[in-house]
């Protein structure tokens, strides 16, 4: 088997990448830039063309992409999509070779990751759950936080790959642990965006210079990566999706359900989950999660 230790080694693993969306495309391209051979599959032809233009290889199917891969990386929207690409005759587990390492970087339920690892082991495939935080910008800049669940030996093998994708890379525990930490991440991010959105509306209605106010707030204890990343979205009302409300709605469902299962109360998180759901119901699901500002504006009397 090829050595997975990373850029310092003379040989690198052949990588199959399944799912070339907002996150998957720049992430796979960063692996190509780092010198990895990447064969990709996704449902949209233009995304396959983009991969090929970046120096990767477009596959005709999942089976075609994974059959010769040392490492298979998946980045799809939710648990149903992970299950759809992993299982069945045309799926990853039926077509991956013995000993391959499957790294699922999607954000899904912890239980889905646990089940995937168990089913993959029966096929001789090792699994890491490795969801990420940092959004589209973090993916492009290769500064993602990567929270990993699985065996330490597999994590150590994959470290070189993770280093090409992110900056903060941590093994959080056994299978499913990465997803649990990602759920907590999404809770914190959603509540933070909501607080920022409420502050923006309050500041504007008070007649304050919003740009100046956000600058000084971000320099103090109220500052955050969320405010740094989303400040321009708030100022310009630019809600082009870096991370869609639809996906954050899915993630808030994951964290509220998982918290209920372990007996953890999420009083503020539950309220923000409902605000995300209401924004989606109003037709804003395709916008960036910074569009929580639109929900606060509506509640404050704006006609949007």
TrEMBL record:
6-phosphogluconate dehydrogenase NADP-binding domain ranges (all copies): 15-173
InterPro entries with a match to the protein in the record: 6-PGluconate_DH-like_C_sf, 6PGD_dom2, 6PGDH_NADP-bd, HIBADH-like_NADP-bd, HIBADH-related, NAD(P)-bd_dom_sf, Tartro_sem_red
Protein's UniProt keywords contain NAD: yes
EC id: 1.1.1.60
GO MF entries: 2-hydroxy-3-oxopropionate reductase activity
Keyword Hydrolase among UniProt keywords: no
Domain 3-hydroxyisobutyrate dehydrogenase-like NAD-binding: 176-295
Keywords from the named record: NAD, Oxidoreductase
Enzyme class, first EC level, given as a word: oxidoreductase
Family: Belongs to the HIBADH-related family.
PANTHER family attached to this UniProt entry: 3-HYDROXYISOBUTYRATE DEHYDROGENASE-LIKE 1, MITOCHONDRIAL-RELATED
Protein name stated in the entry: 2-hydroxy-3-oxopropionate reductase
């Amino acid at each position: 088997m090829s050595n997975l230790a990373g850029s310092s080694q003379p040989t690198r693993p052949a990588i199959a990448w399944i799912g070339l969306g907002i996150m998957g495309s720049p992430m796979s391209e960063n692996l190509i830039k780092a010198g990895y051979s990447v064969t990709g599959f996704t449902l949209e032809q233009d995304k396959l063309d983009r991969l090929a233009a970046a120096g990767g290889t477009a596959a005709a199917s999942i089976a075609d992409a994974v059959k010769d891969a040392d490492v298979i990386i998946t980045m799809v929207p939710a648990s149903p999509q992970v299950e759809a690409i992993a299982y069945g005759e045309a799926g990853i587990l039926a077509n991956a070779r013995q000993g391959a390492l499957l790294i699922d970087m999607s954000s899904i339920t912890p239980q889905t990751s646990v089940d995937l690892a168990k089913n993959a082991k029966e096929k001789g495939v090792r699994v890491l759950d490795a969801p990420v935080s940092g959004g589209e910008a973090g993916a492009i800049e290769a500064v993602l936080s990567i929270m990993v669940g699985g065996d330490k030996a597999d994590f150590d093998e994959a470290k070189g790959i993770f280093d090409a994708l992110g900056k903060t890379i941590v093994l959080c525990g056994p299978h499913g642990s990465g997803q649990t930490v990602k759920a907590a991440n999404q809770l914190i991010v959603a509540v933070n965006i909501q607080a920022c959105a409420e502050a923006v509306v309050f500041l504007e209605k008070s007649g304050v210079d919003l740009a100046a106010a956000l600058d000084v707030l971000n320099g103090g204890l109220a500052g955050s990566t969320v405010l740094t990343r989303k400040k321009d979205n708030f100022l310009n009302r630019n809600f082009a999706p870096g991370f869609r409300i639809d996906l954050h709605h899915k993630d808030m469902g994951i964290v509220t359900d998982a918290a209920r299962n372990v007996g953890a109360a999420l009083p503020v998180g539950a309220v923000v989950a409902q605000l995300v759901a209401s924004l989606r119901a109003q037709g804003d699901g395709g916008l960036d999660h910074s569009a929580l500002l639109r929900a606060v504006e509506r509640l404050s009397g704006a006609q949007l």
